[in-house]
Write a structure and sequence with these properties.
By secondary structure, the chain is of the alpha+beta class. Helices cover 25% and strands 26% of the residues. It has helices at 24-34, 49-55, 65-71, 121-136, 190-199, 244-251, 276-288, 311-327; strands at 8-11, 44-48, 59-61, 73-81, 87-93, 98-100, 113-115, 141-150, 153-164, 169-171, 187-189, 210-214, 296-301, 304-309, 330-336, 342-349.
Length: 357
């Protein structure tokens, strides 16, 4: 892909409130014409997933948003308890990507309802592209965008949820840098970059759900392509299949995403830290769930866990407690009785990594 010298993004004004059954492509084409934006084959239309979902009738009645999230969840990646007792989750959604609350949206919708993501975002993008071509006589690429967070970084940004006609990745591996060294790992996420650029001019509160991006003709293809589903990293290539707390719980045989009432352990609070005694008590719950040995007695005593029983079982449970404490950002000091029939695990704060410069 040849790097363009200039890329522009313009919000498309004039779209009405979108409702189920509306011809969304028709609304976009008419709005572009009214704004004097003549569509071209080398353009990219970036359309917010919310209006796509509204047009596709993805609004459902839900007295509890959590029920809708569960219905759209393939697997739970991480979950945390909010101060008001509710639980927030990062999950792999049925629509494909890993994101908070499966992308279920409770804002700007009718009371008592929530909005689900498009069931097949790539199919939505292909249908929009075909309909635009039918109405306007040109076939710009289409990106269906949504908003998500990112590991290691604060803040949210838009990404390509669905796409048709855009080269979503620019694989430069094997090319030489300016010193003559071959690039080995660089694959630019062009689709996500386009979605993020468009988000700078679109506006959720301003009623501007569509943007026209121009200058990326080298990345626009006549074929629709495999779509944004090809960008979702799952399976062995997924380094982040669980959050760090959930990874420990899964390794200990504790079901992730299952409440205590159903045999799981309630999620950790969203705010890190807290009283050590509370974290020790929660770590003991995790250690005793799942594949914990039977015939061993353990109890939390402030910042300590006291374990008694036959020696092998004591050793197993102590190691489970140590792992569970690690997930609570606590180190463990273990003192074993001479008979090996009891042990004391004392927790202490693990040093935090230095802050960035």
């Amino acid at each position: 892909m040849t790097a363009p010298h200039e890329v522009t993004a313009v919000a498309v004004p004039g779209l009405p409130e979108v409702r189920a059954g509306d011809d969304l492509a028709g609304l976009v084409v008419r709005a572009c014409a009214a704004a004097g934006l003549a569509l071209r084959d080398d353009d990219v239309l970036v359309v917010a997933s919310k209006v796509v979902a509204k047009a596709e009738g993805r609004s459902v009645a839900a007295s509890d948003r959590g029920d809708a999230v569960r219905s759209q969840t393939v697997r739970v990646v991480a979950e945390r308890r909010l101060p008001d007792g509710r639980t927030t989750q990062v999950v792999q959604s049925r629509s494909g990507p890993v994101m908070a609350a499966a992308g279920v949206d409770a804002s700007d919708v009718e009371p008592g309802t929530v909005l689900l993501l498009p069931a097949d975002p790539d199919a939505s993008a292909r249908a929009l592209r075909a309909r635009v071509a039918q109405l306007a006589g040109v076939r710009p690429a289409v990106v269906v965008s949504d908003t998500g967070g990112r590991p290691w970084r604060d803040g949210v940004t838009d990404f390509a949820l669905g796409a048709a006609g855009l080269e979503l990745l620019d694989d430069v591996r094997g090319r030489l840098d300016r010193t003559g060294r071959p690039l080995e790992v660089t694959v630019r996420a062009v689709g996500d970059e386009v979605a993020a650029l468009a988000d700078l001019v679109k506006g959720k509160a301003a009623g501007l759900p569509v943007a026209l991006v121009r200058g990326l003709g080298a990345a626009v293809a006549p074929e629709d392509g495999p779509g944004a589903a090809a960008l979702v990293r799952v399976g062995p290539a997924d380094w982040f299949a669980h959050g760090h707390v959930e990874a420990v719980r899964a390794a200990l045989g504790v079901p992730v995403g299952v409440p205590a009432a159903s045999g799981g352990v309630d999620p950790a609070p969203i705010a890190p830290g807290g009283p050590v005694a509370e974290r020790v008590a929660r770590a003991l719950l995790v250690a005793r769930a799942g594949r914990a040995p039977s015939g061993v007695v353990a109890e939390a005593d402030g910042e300590r866990v006291l374990v008694r029983g036959e020696p092998f079982g004591v050793g197993v449970l102590v190691e489970r407690v140590r792992a569970a404490l690690w997930a609570e950002a606590l180190d463990a000091d273990v003192v074993v009785a001479p008979s090996a029939a009891s042990a004391t695990v004392t927790a202490s704060e693990r040093p935090s990594p230095p802050p960035p410069r």
